[in-house]
Amino acid sequence: MAREKPPIILRRPRRPRAGRGHGGAWKVAYADFVTAMMAFFLVMWLIGIASREERAAVSEYFKNPSAVVGRAQVPAASTLGPGGAAERMVPAASASPVPSAIGPQTAELAQVRAPVDPQAARRAAQAEDRRRLEALRRELEAALEKSQALAPFRDQLLIDLTPEGLRVQIVDRLNRPMFDLGSAHLKGYALEVLHELGRLLADTPHRIALAGHTDEVPYHAPRGYGNWELSADRANAARRALLEGGLGEDRVARVVGLAASVPLDRADPRAPVNRRISIVVLNRSLEGTDTPVAAAAAGRGEAASAAPDAG
């Protein structure tokens, strides 16, 4: 029997049909890329139009996403790890925040990172006080130049700066005393001067200290009434006149009588200029103190420098 030939098997590879691509996956990738670029340029645009303060506030928010401003320098631990979002609200401390133009959170951070030097703060406060009192001095001098009521008495008004503050002194002249002899009764023109000063000092935020002074001429009245009592009564009479002129009663810090213990003219303790009323617009750092002895010492230290002006 003849042997059968094996069948011939032809393998024809399948060719891809024309127009059939590899799918639309590239479109998804391209869309993601365009979205990411749009978000990137949007962020860049927002950063470009935001101010420096707003950028600092945004940065600080991402550093501390808690609902309440915190002051901790070390990131708190949480389930998300160190620096993660807090799991509960952080109680705010009792310290007052530092005023700042870059937002409360950045101000709090500045308060933690830059501790305030008490000495530097005190010097800064004193410098600010000095600047304000210098401005008040210029305002008073300008007002005295323009005031018709005070024009005849300008030679009896002395204005200078002392360690306590801005001092205005009303001194006696030989033929023009402020008070009746041996009395605390103000002359009419002295009352007018004090009323005008009360009006000028009514708008200042500083408190006022008054002191009465006499010369060394001995004065004795019944029941031991002397220069000490007389100087105190004259200072109180000046206080009442300032209040009538518009000064608030709560603005008066102290009223003292110093008799002849702080002469303005040391060369002549009996000179008329030693009889005077001293009104001191106090520095803010001294407003809460009640130290008449220190006031006398300050006045004694300034007397020598003021004496040439008086003479």
Overall pLDDT confidence = 76
**Care to count the β-strands?**
5
Number of domains as seen in the coordinates: 2
Q: What fraction of the residues are assigned to beta strands by DSSP?
A: 5-15%
Find the CATH topology of the largest domain: 60s Ribosomal Protein L30, Chain: A
Number of helices: 7
Structure description:
The protein is an alpha+beta fold. It folds into two domains: 33-113, no CATH class; 120-310, 2-Layer Sandwich (60s Ribosomal Protein L30, Chain: A). The protein has seven helices and five strands. The chain has a five-stranded mixed sheet. Helix 5 crosses helix 6. It is rod-shaped, with a radius of gyration of 41 Å.
Q: Keywords for this structure?
A:
60s Ribosomal Protein L30, Chain: A, disordered C terminus, 2 domains, alpha+beta, five-stranded mixed sheet, 7 helices, 10% strand, 311 residues
Topology:
Blueprint: H1 25-49, H2 52-63, H3 104-113, H4 118-146, E1 157-161, E2 165-171, H5 188-201, E3 208-213, H6 227-245, E4 252-257, E5 276-282, H7 292-310
Parallel strand pairs: 3-4
Antiparallel strand pairs: 1-2, 2-5, 3-5
Helix pairs in contact: 5-6
